[in-house]
Structures are given as structure tokens and as C-alpha cells.
Amino acid sequence: PLYQEAWRVAERELHEAWLKTAEDQEREREKLWLMTRQLKRVRSFFEKTVREGADAASMLRADQEGTDNAS
User: Fold this and answer.
1) The pTM is what?
2) The dihedral sign for the CA sequence 52, 53, 58, 64
3) CA–CA separation, 50 and 46 (whole Å)
4) What's the Cα-to-Cα distance from 60 to each of 23, 31, 50, 53, 70, rounded to whole Å?
């Protein structure tokens, strides 16, 4: 899906920016490394939230179908 491509592009761009830094640009390299780590954490949080939301929606549909069938 589109959101997965967005994560890949963001990770790739951060990595490419890091590769372009000079060895003596320690602060910039550290900042880009931290941004990459944070992006991975945000992605993990996002995916967990989507997964749990889908699970909850599925449970609600099953409950609703059970109620409809009981009528």
C-alpha cells in the first residue's frame, strides 16, 4: 500500500542524507541517525495502532452479526 511506500521513501531519504554528510559533521550525522530511529518507532506505533484498530473493527462486526442473527 501507499503508506508502506511512504515509510520506505522517508527511510531512504534519511539514509541518503546521512551518506552525503562528511565525516567531520558529527552533529548532523547523529541527528540523522536519531531521526531514522524515531521514524522506525513512529512506524511501529502506527502499524500497531492500525492492526489493533482492524482487530477491534473485526470484533465489532462479529458482535453485530451475532446480534443480527439472534433477531
Assistant:
1) 0.72
2) positive
3) 6
4) 54, 43, 15, 10, 15
Could you read off the pLDDT of 37-67 as tens digits, one per residue? 999 999 999 889 888 888 888 888 888 887 7
Burial class (CB in 10 A: 0-12, 13-18, 19+), 21: middle
46: CB partners within 8 A, 6+ apart: 3
Whether the CB-CB separation of 39 and 14 falls below 8 Å is answered with yes
Q: What is the 3-state secondary structure (H, E, C) of the chain?
A: CHHHHHHHHHHHHHHHHHHHCCCCCHHHHHHHHHHHHHHHHHHHHHHHHHHHHHHHHHHHHHHHHHHHHHC
